[in-house]
């Protein structure tokens, strides 16, 4: 095997034979990106030729790119929705895919306030597994000795539902953790987790988090890397430690398990791990009782080499807080994936967050790219370019055709090409289209915020003249802040505090189900806050924008702000602040 032709690396050759194979696979896929893509498309079109969807475009058995591009339209979720609804309702005919739909993956992207349902087929699990299997071989090129310790990963499952037709609907990671691929994975010295499967698979988030934290503490010297899927998840774990260190150290001292952890499989598996360790308990007490939690991660887990969390995209807002708690440990963003399809991986995972680029793996699906400009003409599909034809420096929207039956589907992610690895382009994640506010996996767009303000303002006997918002992540959990300027001439006419509190809750009730799930089930978003600003504030905001060069004719109130001077201006004009007094409605089975 030509080891020297494998990824250039500061550390030289692969860590082991298994890694060499994985790296060789990456090389082959990226060198032959175009022919791999051609084959993927031919396979997808060949096997799905008799589906109702593809048949309606009269491909007549063709599986080539030219016919595909000339006959199949580019679509959004809304276009696919009627087909997806039929599958969800129990229609088992080959509608989108010739392989039976095995379950629905519930995306954090929403449509009409509810999670989007992505059909998937059994073999997709293998494709996802394949991408996972490439991550450690790449990481081992940059960080040595990861087989000498463990990873403290905070991993969780979420609630699942059944569609009217009886198919499971759940998040992609819940599906993966519950699969045999994960549960019965063979021992791999480079991938040993401190969390037992029983804790990861416990549906109760408190019991799961408590057990995972406890195991992490027992393994404090073995832990070499700490992770969660997204940065927000890791910060939640820190917050959990802040709230529970007393009980955790008590358990460690006594070798006991908090009685609130009632799950029998956890209690059973923990008998192997629990032991009285008064020295460790003293250490936890002394570190956690200090007022200053700066560098708490490296204080408790001194051998941590890096944090394994996604801090690109909306998660970039958490970088300063992660740096504070970790003393600036490297933050490895290893992969780029979605419920629709897993896309690719970062071949240089120890780089700075601002330099992260993901290499799309050409075997995962058929990828096309819509140049991202303001040209939204009907002929947009004609402008789609293939994976190998994207240009460095340009921005594109990702469009995918998957084995599970999504055809020329707009994912909604905007990516910028930063370079190539062999023939495969590498992309910086720029942003998701139409997302205004995001704290955790929630994605709130401008229309949703507008609808929420409209609904809440019906509780007032006056109106909201102007509003804007921002995602406040200074505290954990973060929360939405909405600035309101009200139509009141005198302070005495201002609505009572109780009314404005109800407005906060009413806005939350109006927001999408992912927001409400984060609030209610996960506790990963705090109560929404309304800050009432005094009359004329938004005019001042406009004056400020114009002084910085905005055109008066084109000025629009930004519906979300993050620029410090603007926030300072707004905050200096606040006359009252109000928080949501209780939780909005959410239930795994609620479809409103
Ligand atoms: P979901 O369908 O809920 O799994 O969300 C998938 C979306 O999360 C993607 O389409 C992206 O918008 C976002 N995402 C996933 N991975 C990354 C990443 N590495 N960096 C930034 N955003 C990401």
UniProtKB/TrEMBL annotation:
Domain of life of the organism encoding this protein: Eukaryota
GH3 C-terminal domain span: 448-563
Domain GH3 middle: 358-432
InterPro entries: GH3, GH3_C, GH3_M
GO molecular function annotation: ligase activity
Keywords: Ligase
Family, similarity comment: Belongs to the IAA-amido conjugating enzyme family.
Protein name: Indole-3-acetic acid-amido synthetase GH3.1
Lineage of the organism: Eukaryota, Viridiplantae, Streptophyta, Embryophyta, Tracheophyta
